[in-house]
Automatic annotation (TrEMBL):
Name of this protein: Methyltransferase
Location of the protein in the cell: Endoplasmic reticulum membrane; Membrane
Family according to the record: Belongs to the methyltransferase superfamily.
Enzyme Commission number(s) of this protein: 2.1.1.-
Broad enzyme group: transferase
Transmembrane parts of this sequence: 20-39
Keyword Isomerase: no
GO biological process, one term: methylation
Keyword entries, A-Z: Glycoprotein, Membrane, Methyltransferase, Signal-anchor, Transferase, Transmembrane, Transmembrane helix
CDD domains noted in UniProt: AdoMet_MTases
Amino acid sequence: MAVSLSNISSKAKKTSLYKVTLVSILCAVFYLVGFYQNFRGNVPTAASTANIISCQQQIRNTTTLDFAAHHYDPDPPSTAARAINLPPCDPKFIEYTPCEDVQRSLKFDRDRLIYRERHCPGTNELLKCRIPAPFGYKTPFRWPESREFGWFANVPHKELTVEKKNQNWVRFEGDRFRFPGGGTMFPRGADAYIDDIGKLINLKDGSIRTAIDTGCGVASWGAYLLSRNVLAVSFAPRDTHEAQVQFALERGVPALIGVIASIRLPYPSRSFDMTHCSRCLIPWGQYDGQYLIEVDRILRPGGYWILSGPPINWQSHWKGWDRSKEDLNSEQTSIENVAKSLCWKKLIQKGDIAIWQKPTNHIHCKVVRRVYKRPAFCDGSQDPDTAWYTKLETCLTPLPEVSNIKEIAGGKLEKWPRRLTAVPPRISSGSLEGVTAETFQENTELWKRRVAYYKTIDYQLAEHGRYRNLLDMNAYLGSFAAALVNDPMWVMNTVPVDLQINTLGAIYERGLIGTYQNWCEAMSTYPRTYDFIHADSIFSLYQDRCEMEDILLEMDRILRPEGSVIIRDDVDMILKVKNIVDSMQWDARIVDHERSPHEREKILHAVKQYWTAPEPDKKKLKR
């Protein structure tokens, strides 16, 4: 059996070998035949060579090879970058204030000075050019010298030197203005006038920190309060007193263009420790007391309203005021009645000064509503802190509830300077959603570090006294300003109205100042207001609301020549900003985040170059 199996295996192997040999021979034969045929076919002849050349020429002459794809979606439309062109504006726009433009204002109602309120240009009216400085513009005097002097070339108006000559507002001396510190009701000077007020209420213990001056003139009252650690916002309309707010800003005093007419002032409720009117010509007793009701809204519990000028002490001044005794007495009576209806207490009237005080809560006031039925308390349908084109009301803004007559509504504030770092009552009470005491403290420390880093980027910010007027375009809790409080400068803290959380009230509770703003519109201030502008995440906030270049043009308008800008934002936004400002005569560079170069948030630092309008044609001026 074993032998039989061995024979079978041997035969199978031989059969396989024969098959492999046969296949190999056949493959070799076919390969040789193919090679022979191919060799014969590639031997060129004269005729075949001519035909090949002719064919190649014909292909070159008549055929274009198409390598394009024929099955694809259409390309999107071309998005070639638009060439940015932002030239200088005509010199006639040197003092252009877009939302208080004199010509545009004439289209609006003159009743109650509504035409002097904000009336901003439409999108199709916006200037796409850069506002020039006047010829001969100079860097303003440094504080405190700027309180006394300003260059004529910077604000070339002599009208007030003539109109207010006897009141010591401002005098023209050679190439400059001098501000003696006088006013209509304080001919001895603002310093002496403030001393008189200080004899009636305490201006020294830190309980009074924030103030507002309505109808401020050239802001001498605010200028001289600064030496007493009282920070005042001064405002006045752009009216026949040409450039009064501009003079205030040139002096280095916080000021805005504004008027009490038909809409709320752009400040939250309970903002100011003290409000002031010195012959401001506001009809306080008219229109159902609306203007005093608005003062009450922005006045802090226990705060003071100071009035000097008509009709106060009319018995001594009625002849000089060219008004009848009856008229002046009637005006004072109406003011007294409105003040009583607001539950204010008249503390004192001495000489030309009268002072009222707002109650610290409304417990007693709710009781006396039985006597003074008007104004009624507002029903709460409107947020008392909302103040952007918000109509004035004829109802009394109720103070936050308290548990007893001695409690201060809204919470007691620390005295200055402890007020700056103490947790604001709006935060400690939980009124600001998502903002806690811990958030506040962390934010304060964060901005100390950031400002220290900024000073390594911008040597002018680091130089003591180089900057005076600063703007923070998105202030949040005011910690940028708080970090600079020991430098001789002030910061206007703006809170964009587009934000969900309104933090401006907390900023005021820190003893700082600010205003609301929509950065798709111009600010209520003159060109060349600020030495330095800080913009944190502004362009991300407004990217779907208005054009980036319009915001940058507004920044350029209100920035002084050789002033600086620091912009923080996402790197994509920063690159877009850099592309625009390179056409605006700004020297700009991008800097890494203070924590790490790997952060997406970047910083753009820019300095506005010095340039002015051309020298006026003297021949034309003579004509």
